[in-house]
Design goal:
By secondary structure, this protein is of the alpha+beta class. It folds into four domains: about 5-220, Spore Coat Polysaccharide Biosynthesis Protein SpsA, Chain A, CATH 3.90.550.10; about 230-305, no CATH class; about 365-385 and about 430-730 and about 910-950, no CATH class; about 385-430 and about 750-880, no CATH class. The protein contains 36 helices and 26 strands. The longest helix is centred in the last third of the chain and has 24 residues, at about 710-730.
């Protein structure tokens, strides 16, 4: 007598698949004796399609697949036969005609078999195995033994499995009833796995039947859904794993597993970030919380308690750690083989990139070689850093600032950049700035070459970009003026562009882009608006990459938010654009000077050079126009050559940079004494220069073999443009100079070494006849202690009025109690800095000096490099005015923790977790060289297969090795 078969077809929003599935059931060679059709809460046309099959069973609510099967069996024939089998099918499981016959044939010859599973094939490709056989690792993670492989009968020998999938499963009805069906706590993922394991523990066999083939449209998690994100799938699978862990574990281990749920979720979340799966983090945490309050664990444990002791019997069917590692290695190897379409890129040395970096290094040593061996740099916008790493990191976040009279407020984000930079030379933090000056030009050349090479197939374009970027007039002018933030932004801008480009396909590059984005905006706040605009435009151009690109500015927001809040509360929003560092008084260049790439008012040093040669300085604009003409022609030529569309973004960047530079000259928010000074436009001009070079790169790439002569002409002209600035830097006629690292006279520094809160009052005569006053503590106000909150504050608070009153009475004879004020403020020294070059300033300085000399409380110490010094020897013991540090207030602690968490997540995201090397010879280089257009280098396959090209030393045949992250 043939066994009875009851097919249970469960549908939920499966109208797209039901016609094929219903037809496949009707076409079976061995047709089921009964077909129970279940509609589990469909909202599409599934109900009408099922109505044609006869009576349709409707579940109360949206029951799970297992719940729908249970409901159907209860509603069906109550009498159970000894040899009755249940065939489980979903709306997206279309069996081949011989599927049921093959399944019955397998169970009839083996009475110990209680569950038989078919080979699930891809719905859209019947030659690909979607899933066949399941198991678990020794740690309990479910593993599909076969997924997405071409069916070549390679798995037709093995039959015994730990588990099989639910779709197409044939199960003895008596076993289904005895085991209670699928666990109600597992709505989709691992439900069939858990049921199969319980059947195994009850002494039954589970087999796979390769001859039975059933089409499947997707894993059980997506049953009844149109789509499901990777994060949601991870949540469902992780919850299923945790549920099984709590159900299968011995009773004594359950409390330990329960207590470990949240710590493990946090640790795994960090692992997801490192592995470039940040979208899985919310699901990971949600799964842990749901598992912690899972009410289905206790009933499930009761169902399995009688057979839990038989676990050793199924140990051979689990996957060992060695097998897991081997499987992962095979998957990585398959992924490497699958990657194709790698484009040819120029070699670093063979294309001349190495030579350009070397030339830039030589020019850098010519310009700044005199700084070799010096302790630190000062002058212009520069000052030494704190002498210890602890001092560097104590100035970040939100807390007390010992500037002027002192105040509590947010630190500049640039303080974090300086803390990182200074920590690189932790033994002498100021040495990092010296090393940066010595390496600035080659670093800029390398960054530009690397960026241009990603968009090029030939060597001339990136080679030209390297030298043009390294000797850019805005860059050299920023170096000469000590505008450290603009220097750092210039070096990082090409790398930021490249990272943003690749971030559309790589989570690692998104993390790198976030770090660079924050560093650029912190170093040059004037660039924040254009960089944000470029980021937004790239998201619009790559909508599918929005999940990766959306988080790029988060670190920037975290670092800047406290300062934004302070400036908004003060009503000085534009002050957020102020340049960090030592405030410097300067004249704003005109629009035509900015167009020529000159951030200062001396036209890149050409006016002084022509004057020294006996020529009219008025010729400088004409000379610069002639020398810059080749670069301008190349940039504009790109609009009229094939591939015009690729030059438009570059020239748009140039326009954006120029507009930003013009706007910077009209924003006067920083105060130097009583005078306002405009924002330094050098960083914005670097963006302008980047766009021009980008357009030139497109033109040179399109010119192909005809690019050599234009590249040589434009490169030589740019070297001539940079010559005056290089000569001025080499001769020492720039604002930046070597420094011993002392901010105050040696006498003051010696006293401050034992009294860090000792105050020094600095008086500076102004050109308008006034007197500027500043108060330094300890060894002086270092570069990392500077604050744009102080530099942009146009109002005088109580502490500043107090200092002004003290300075006024020191600079003139009065009956004011100076001693009491000096004692209260713990001021032990007064220094009068050299007067500005004006009659009014000289007269003011003379009057102040006479008054200070005539004050019996002050003892003249003598003239120093910083000015004339007086000492107050009668200083009484006391405590200087101070305030809370970054960790001494609730808001300060919150700021540091928030910034630290965002920074840690960003760093973890940026760390490469996997490296794959691909080797490709240039066998198709000749064919590609004949192409007249340039296309951006492909940034790799989706997700995290995108990597950085590592140029190799070419000898004969060109080979490229690409390292993937």
């Amino acid at each position: 007598m043939q066994p009875r078969v009851t097919a249970v077809l469960v549908a939920r929003n499966g109208a797209e698949y039901l016609p094929r599935t219903l037809a496949s059931i009707e076409a079976q060679l061995r047709r089921p004796d009964e077909v129970l059709v279940v509609d589990s809460g469909s909202t599409d046309a599934s109900a009408s399609l099922l109505a044609g099959t006869g009576s349709v069973i409707t579940t109360p609510g949206r029951a799970s697949f297992g719940g729908a099967v249970d409901h159907a069996l209860r509603m069906g024939e109550p009498q159970q036969r000894e040899d009755e089998w249940v065939w489980l099918l979903g709306h997206d499981n279309a069996p081949e005609p011989g599927a049921l016959s093959a399944l019955l044939g397998a169970v009839e010859v083996a009475p110990s078999v209680a569950i038989a599973g078919p080979k699930l094939m891809r719905w859209d490709d019947p030659t690909i195995i979607a899933a066949f056989g399941e198991t678990v690792t020794t740690l309990g993670r479910s593993v599909q033994l076969v997924t997405d492989e071409l069916d070549q009968a390679q798995y037709d020998v093995q039959s015994d499995y730990l588990a099989v999938a639910a779709g197409g499963m044939l199960v003895r009805r008596s076993v289904w009833t005895a085991l209670g069906g699928f666990d109600p706590g597992l709505s989709s993922a691992d439900a069939a796995l858990d049921f199969s394991v319980r059947a195994r523990l009850a002494g039954y066999r589970v087999v796979g039947v390769p001859a039975a083939r059933v089409a499947s449209a997707g894993p059980p998690e997506v049953f009844g859904r149109r789509s499901l994100s990777a994060g949601a799938q991870n949540r469902i699978r992780r919850f299923a794993q945790l549920h099984r862990r709590l159900v299968w574990a011995p009773l004594a281990a359950v409390p330990l597993h329960w207590l470990s749920l949240l710590p493990l979720a946090i640790a795994r979340s960090i692992g997801h970030i490192v592995a470039k799966r940040p979208g899985s983090v919310p699901g990971e945490l949600a799964a842990a919380i749901a598992a912690a309050f899972d009410g289905g664990v206790a009933p499930a444990r009761r169902r399995i308690r009688h057979t839990r002791s038989l676990w050793p019997a199924i140990a051979p069917l689990r996957m060992s750690g060695a097998e897991v590692r081997e499987r992962r290695a095979q998957e990585r190897a398959a992924a490497v083989i699958a990657v194709s379409g790698l484009r040819e890129r120029p070699g670093f040395f063979a294309s001349g990139g190495g030579w350009m970096v070397l030339i830039a290094a030589v020019l850098g040593m010519i310009a700044f070689g005199r700084f070799v061996g010096v302790a630190s740099l000062a002058g212009g916008g520069l000052a030494p850093l704190s002498s210890t790493v602890e001092g560097l990191w104590s100035t970040i976040g939100y807390g007390w600032h010992d500037i002027g009279g002192g105040f509590v407020g947010a630190s500049d984000p640039f303080a974090a950049v300086l803390a990182v930079l200074g920590s690189l030379t932790f033994w002498a933090p100021s040495q990092s700035i010296v090393l940066l000056y010595l390496a600035a030009l080659p670093l800029a050349a390398l960054a530009a070459w690397w960026c241009a090479a990603a968009f090029s197939r030939r060597g001339w374009a990136p080679t030209f970009a390297a030298i043009a970027w390294a000797i850019a007039p805005p860059f050299l002018t920023s170096l000469a003026g000590g505008h450290l933030g603009a220097v750092i932004a210039h070096i990082l801008l090409p790398t930021l562009v490249l990272a943003l480009f690749r971030a559309s396909r790589s989570w690692a590059m998104a993390g790198v882009a976030a770090l660079l984005f924050a560093a650029v905006c912190a170093s040059a706040p004037i660039l924040a608006a254009p960089v944000v605009l470029l980021w937004f435009a790239w998201m619009v151009a790559r909508p599918r990459a929005i999940p990766r690109l959306l988080g790029v500015p988060l670190l920037t927001v975290a670092l800047a938010l406290p300062l934004v809040i302070d400036q908004v509360q003060r009503g000085t929003v534009l002050a957020l654009l102020a340049e960090p560092g030592v405030p410097v008084l300067r004249e704003a260049p005109s629009g035509w000077q900015l167009a020529l790439g000159s951030a200062g008012d001396q036209l890149a040093g050409w006016e002084q050079l022509l004057a020294s040669l006996g020529l009219a300085p008025a010729m400088a604009p004409i000379v610069l126009i002639v020398l810059l003409a080749p670069l301008a022609v190349l940039a504009l030529l790109a609009l009229f050559l094939p591939g015009t569309v690729r030059s438009v973004p570059a020239l748009a960047i140039a326009f954006l940079g120029f507009v930003t530079a013009v706007a910077a000259t009209h924003i006067e928010v920083t105060l130097v004494g009583s005078q306002a000074t405009p924002v330094w436009p050098g960083a914005a001009l670097s963006l302008y220069w980047l766009g021009l070079i980008g357009g030139a790169v497109v033109a040179l790439e399109t010119l192909a073999t005809r690019a050599a002569i234009p590249a040589w002409i434009a490169g030589a002209a740019l070297l001539a443009v940079a010559a005056p600035l290089v000569v001025a830097s080499a001769s020492g006629s720039i604002a930046v100079r070597e420094s011993s690292g002392r901010l105050l006279p040696a006498f003051v520094t010696a006293e401050a070494s034992t009294r860090p809160d000792l105050g020094t009052l600095a008086l500076s005569a102004q050109g308008d006849g006034g007197l500027a006053v500043d108060l330094h503590r300890g060894e002086g106000t270092t570069l990392n202690e500077q604050s744009t909150l102080a530099a942009t504050d146009a109002t005088a608070d109580e502490s500043e009025l107090r200092l002004a009153t003290l300075a006024g009475n020191l600079a003139s004879r009065s009956g004011f109690d100076i001693a009491a004020e000096l004692d209260d403020l713990q001021i032990g020294f007064v220094i009068l800095t050299p007067a500005a070059d004006s009659i009014e300033a000289s007269a003011t300085a003379q009057r102040a000096a006479e008054s200070l000399d005539g004050n019996r409380l002050l003892t003249p110490v003598g003239d120093t490099a910083q000015g004339f010094l007086w000492a107050y020897e009668g200083l009484a013991d006391g405590q200087a005015p101070t305030g809370p540090g970054p960790l001494e207030t609730q808001w300060g602690t919150t700021v540091l923790i928030g910034q630290g968490v965002v920074l840690l997540v960003t760093i973890l995201l940026a760390i490469p977790t996997e490296r794959r090397r691909r080797v490709r010879t240039a066998s198709t280089a000749k064919r590609r060289d004949s192409e007249a257009s340039v296309a951006p280098a492909d940034d790799g396959p989706p997700d995290d297969a995108a990597g950085d090209a590592i140029p190799s030393i070419e000898s004969g045949e060109r080979t490229e090795v690409t390292r993937d992250e």
